[in-house]
Amino acid sequence: MQTDAPILKELVLAGGGHSHALLLRMWGMHPIPGIRLTVISDHAHAPYSGMLPGLIEGVYTFDEAHIDIARLCIFAGARFIRGRVIGLDLAGKRVRVADRPPIAYDLLSLNVGSVPPTEPVPGADTYAIQVKPVSALLTALDSLLEQPKPPRSITVVGGGAGGVELLMALMHRFNATFRDARPPTTYRLVHSEAQLLETHHHRVRRTVAAELRRRGVELVLEDRVVEVLQNGLKLQSGSLVEADAVFWATGAAAPQWPAAAGLSVDARGFVAVTETLQSVSHPEVFAAGDVASMKAHPRPKSGVFAVRQAKPLYHNLRAVLLGEPLRAYRPQSQFLSLIGTADGRAIASRGPFSWHSRTMWRWKEHIDRKFMRRFEDLPSMEILRPNAAAPRTAMTGELEDVIRNHQFRCSGCGAKVGQGVLERALRRAIEEAPGSEPSEHVLVGLEERDDAAVLSVPPGSYLLQSVDYFPALLSDPYLFARIAVVHAASDLHAMGARISSAQLTAVLPPASSKAQEETLYQIVSGVLTALAQEGATLVGGHSAEGKELALGLTVNGWSPKDAVLTKNGMRAGDRLVLTKPLGVGCLFAAEMRLRARARWLDQAIASMLASNGPAGTIFRSHGAHALTDITGFGLAGHLLEMLTASRCDARLDVQCIPALPGALEVLAQGIASSLQQENRRIADAIQHTRSGPTDPYFELLFDPQTAGGLLASVPAAEAEACLAALKAQGYAASAVIGEVTAQANEHPRIVLA
Ligand SMILES: Cc1cc2nc3c(=O)[nH]c(=O)nc-3n(C[C@H](O)[C@H](O)[C@H](O)COP(=O)(O)OP(=O)(O)OC[C@H]3O[C@@H](n4cnc5c(N)ncnc54)[C@H](O)[C@@H]3O)c2cc1C
After folding, report:
1. Which atom belonging to ligand 1 lies closest to the Cα atom of 288?
2. In ligand 1, which atom is closest to the CA atom of 132?
3. Whose CA is nearest to atom 7 of ligand 1?
4. Strand 153-157 and strand 186-191: pairing?
5. Of 435, 497, 527, 547, which residue is the least packed, with the fewest Cβ within 10 Å?
């Protein structure tokens, strides 16, 4: 839920674990005005621990067993930063994130889970499959399942509840996938202790051991793996056992960066927290789930606690912001575990109580599905509106001041952002920017701080210039800025220019000076990163305050006078080559309605981040006769512009047009960008044979793109080589989508095949 209040304080959630997922849901229903909530997670989908064994077993799909964190962020009005936390600057209150600028916080919460143990077992890193991160485990599993034959033997190392459930789930999955394999796969469990599941009652241990033996699992107890080899394991006892696939489930270790940053940690490196879930050493840092260790109440690492800690975490973070008293949380000492046995049954275990039955599995399934429904059944975007009744913060006085000042804020000079904010944000971003050679065509630029940039072009060249303006497409200002540069530069790449410089207009939402500086810093960092990739320099800009974050970019480039490529020049017989898949518009329309999957958006973002520069060079070297970039008018609109300029028709092979994952699915549900209708006004110029106006492929033709691909008219003899070069350059979805034909009537038309 969004609020219109100026941004005053930064609450940052690092990691998309169970506690943060639940917290986001609660926050979305009761946001605090003036607090900018930011979530940093290395994956947009977080696995739900209760369903993980079922996912491995094959009873749940990926979507059923994952929480869509990016979608929850939209619901909660939070910024979503796709990134891996690698450290903390506790003095400067910044979270360090891999491959991007750090994120500032006033209040920080960690829910990043645990990492595989770092015990120095030679070969474990190279040859064993670690159970964490789960995304890597699932990738490794998929690749084993795709082999023509199953592994001859599978060994799980670690006999806790996680290892036992994992082994049973793997057995079910491999036996079902390779039903007729001869000889069948053999299974083994290696555990260093004399008993499996030592934290459970002896009745549960006996049931589990008997169940594993009944299924033919070889149990190797009271022995340790001392080395993992390519096809086997060396044990402490001296035995050597064969193992084609080794899964490493020996328990949870702490990530190293919290301790390295100076946070107080327990003996194993987990963040030491009080009963209020605050760091013992840094009260402005909270931690929950596996990464936290409650000094007064040590508990095993389990998703159950991460879930239970969500409410106290939510309450206490709000309490700090609202100046209210914090609540102590005491985890229960006994809790119910439901251990799936991958045969339609589960073992219930709590203290001395245990029961292994189908009923227990049905109960577990009911609990898990109910839990996940909480993240699916979110209110739709239509009813997400500012919550007038949301509480004022403890910083009420401060908030009111900002609102009052905001109302009377000067709108002269384009409501410029304060000079101090601008200076500091620029200085920081420039200092940390990836180094790039200053362009020889910039005579006076940003460094000179003069009134205007002075630019030159090489003799015999033209100056090419293009301007674009974008409201924020993503909540992450850094990624948004990088995409904006790719989009703006694309117009020049389509005309064969080399980009030399750009000017930036940044419109920032009302916020405290500190919050505004942070937003601007992220934006300028993104612009500088993307311009460095283009070999271009930022030469100036303008900043202003507006209701929502938006960016304008003016991009300059040059091209030899005889090398400028235009839309005019197509010839009948040319092949039409498109470099990127379509679907950006409808996917982001679906995202606003909470109807897009984060993994679809991940792919859309990756596609948008790819510069069209190398593609432009490849097209020119293969003699393209005409070139354009696909943006707001969609494929049909931009193709028609080319056909009109060139006086040609085109035939499109609809099935060959690449689509982003999820795009056809959302179009089939009637979800489209608000520009779609306008773009469809040229639909009369399209003659459809097989696909028709109700076909999602047809709708895809009008889908507006941000940072879309290039569309080229390439001589037929060059098309194949050109396509191969594009694919080798990384444009994996590039395709020949049709051909140029002679104009049949007065008006150009597109025939769909
Ligand atoms: C095979 C297996 C089966 C299990 N089965 C169960 C079970 O049935 N029931 C149960 O209660 N527990 C189970 N567990 C334990 C359970 O998975 C963990 O205790 C639980 O996931 C911890 O939850 P969390 O919220 O602390 O962190 P996690 O669920 O691990 O979530 C952390 C999130 O933060 C993200 N993240 C991690 N590091 C970073 C970083 N550096 N930067 C940014 N983001 C980051 C991750 O992508 C992840 O989404 C099982 C564990 C395994 C390995």
Report:
1. 26
2. 53
3. 50
4. parallel
5. 435
CATH topology of domain 9-114+254-335+361-382: FAD/NAD(P)-binding domain (3.50.50)
Q: Is the CB of 49 under 6 A from ligand 1?
A: yes
What stretches of 178-327 show up as alpha helix (H) in DSSP? 202-214, 257-261, 303-308, 310-322
Q: Is the CB of 16 under 6 A from ligand 1?
A: yes
CATH of 565-753, one of 3.90.650.10, 3.40.50.970, 3.30.950.30, 3.40.50.300: 3.90.650.10
Best probe residue, ligand 1, of 302, 313, 350, 368 (max atoms within 8 Å of C-beta) = 302
The per-residue pLDDT of the chain, averaged, comes to 91
pLDDT in tens, 655-664: 999 999 999 9
> Does any ligand 1 atom lie closer than 6 A to the CB of residue 112?
yes
Answer whether 162 contacts ligand 1 (Cβ < 6 A).
yes
CATH for the 124-248 domain, from 2.60.40.150, 3.30.300.30, 3.40.50.150, 3.50.50.60: 3.50.50.60
Structure confidence by residue, pLDDT tens digits, 121-170: 999 989 999 999 999 999 999 999 999 999 999 999 999 999 999 999 99
Structural Rg of the chain based on CA atoms? 29
Is residue 722 flagged as an active site residue? no
Catalytic residue among 73, 410, 413, 656: 413
How many whole angstroms from its chain centre is CA 472?
A: 16
pLDDT of residue 447: 79
Q: What is the pTM of this model?
A: 0.90
